[in-house]
UniProtKB/TrEMBL annotation:
It is found in: Membrane. Keywords: Germination, Lipoprotein, Membrane, Palmitate, Signal. PANTHER family: SPORE GERMINATION PROTEIN B3. Belongs to the GerABKC lipoprotein family. Residues 225-388 form the Spore germination GerAC-like C-terminal domain. The keyword Ligase does not apply. This is Spore germination protein KC. The keyword Transmembrane helix does not apply. GO terms for cellular component: membrane. It comes from the Bacteria. PROSITE patterns: PROKAR_LIPOPROTEIN.
């Protein structure tokens, strides 16, 4: 009896071990995949031209050959993004693997027609992680951006991704929008999405060759320019740099930035401050049967540079500098609101604020909120800026020398 028990126990142990050591049924071998880092979508007639930037693993090793590019770009035209990606296997022996996608860019034609169709695949595909950023190509093709050779990073797609993340933190006129934000704003009531613009400057043809990295001054470079305003999933216009900065302040995206203003009291030159903290509060109300919004912004910063002949130790001058920057920011925020009202698109979430505070009234408004935002909404902007530090020196050298 003991003999049979031992045989039975050994058999069960072998079966359990076999189950625990079994491989994944849907595994993907690395040698069978092309890892897609960036993806571009251009509208060509009734089709999408999909371009992907893939990593060449062999060129990323320490013993890589200097004659091989670290990335390869493939392009295909099909009515859908999914078909185009699969058709790329006719040019590449490896299947396009989009799980590590970091950056996607649409051309203006696609953005103005609507990004819902190409995004449907990205929302639906199980392999894709929804943490990549998006942008709209300005005055160039998305294919040109995907094929751009970055002078600062080995992987151009990662360079653009990092640059957008960094510029949002330290230069507020840009917004690093990921697919989660787009998904939420496309279904939310009272707020519309935005995407940052991405342009190529210089010799665009040479920017896609290795010549772009062989000179200290690149032949071409990419630049993030302004914020694109969307209505539903369609691009309808652009905000300039100051208007984009105002949008970042109102929506609390701004983490740090630089604000410049003319010297007070008619003085010559400029001074600027480094914004280190900003908090905007949106207060909805109803006045005279019209929607009314108060945007209160409290910001703090340090003196960054002074070209004015002013005494920073003078309390009155300190107050004037703060007031000057407050007025400067007020103009930027007001310009941003006016531009959005011109387009009739609420990108700030004012409608969502009314939805939360006046849910019953919002049921009557939501169908015509775009018109109300454009023609009826009153927006009162109040900015209070506080200067904290002057830096290592107090007064400019010109003032110190005159004492």
């Amino acid at each position: 009896m003991n003999k049979y028990c031992k045989i039975f126990s050994c058999g069960c142990l072998l079966i359990i071990t076999a189950l625990m050591l079994s491989g994944c049924w849907n595994r993907n071998e690395l040698i069978d995949l092309s890892i897609v880092l960036a993806l571009g979508v251009d509208k060509v007639g009734n089709e999408y031209e999909v371009s992907v930037q893939t990593i060449d693993p062999s060129s990323m090793s320490r013993n890589r050959s200097t004659n091989r590019a670290p990335t390869t770009v493939f392009s295909e035209r099909e009515p859908t993004v999914f078909e185009a990606l699969r058709k790329m296997t006719t040019k590449s022996p490896r299947r396009m693997y989009v799980s590590h996608l970091r950056f996607i860019v649409f051309d203006e034609a696609t953005a103005r027609e609507g990004i819902h169709n190409p995004l449907d695949f990205l929302f639906r595909e199980q392999e894709i992680r929804p943490d990549f950023n998006m942008a709209v190509a300005k005055d160039c093709k998305a294919k040109d951006i995907i094929g751009f050779v970055s002078p600062t990073e080995v992987l151009p797609g990662m360079d653009m991704y990092k640059s957008l993340q960094t510029s949002e933190r330290v230069w507020s006129p840009t917004s690093a929008v990921n697919v989660r934000e787009i998904m939420s704003k496309l279904v939310m009531e009272g707020v519309e999405p935005v995407l940052t613009g991405l342009a190529l400057h210089g010799d665009i043809k040479q920017g896609g060759t290795s010549e772009n990295v062989k000179k200290p001054v690149p032949l071409a470079n990419y630049v993030y320019e302004g914020i694109g305003v969307f209505k539903d999933d369609k691009l309808i216009g652009w905000m300039n740099e100051d208007e984009s900065r105002g949008y970042s302040y109102i929506t609390n995206i701004a983490k740090s930035s630089v604000a410049r203003a003319k010297c007070p009291d008619g003085g010559k030159g400029w001074f600027n401050v480094e914004l280190i903290r900003s908090k905007a509060k949106i207060e909805p109300s109803i006045k005279n049967d019209r929607p009314h919004i108060v945007v209160r912004v409290q910001a703090q910063g340090n003196i960054g540079e002074v070209q004015c002949a002013v005494d920073l130790m003078d309390p009155e001058m300190h107050r004037k500098l703060q007031e000057t920057i407050s007025n400067k920011l007020n103009v930027a925020l007001d310009g941003s609101v006016k531009r959005a009202k011109e387009y009739g698109v609420d990108v700030f979430g004012f409608g969502e604020a009314f939805h939360r505070k006046y849910p019953k009234l919002w049921r009557e408004w939501k169908g015509r909120w775009g018109e109300m935002f454009k023609n009826e909404l009153v927006v009162d902007i109040q900015v209070e800026f506080q200067i904290l530090l002057h830096g290592k020196i107090n007064n400019p050298f010109t003032v110190e020398q005159s004492k």
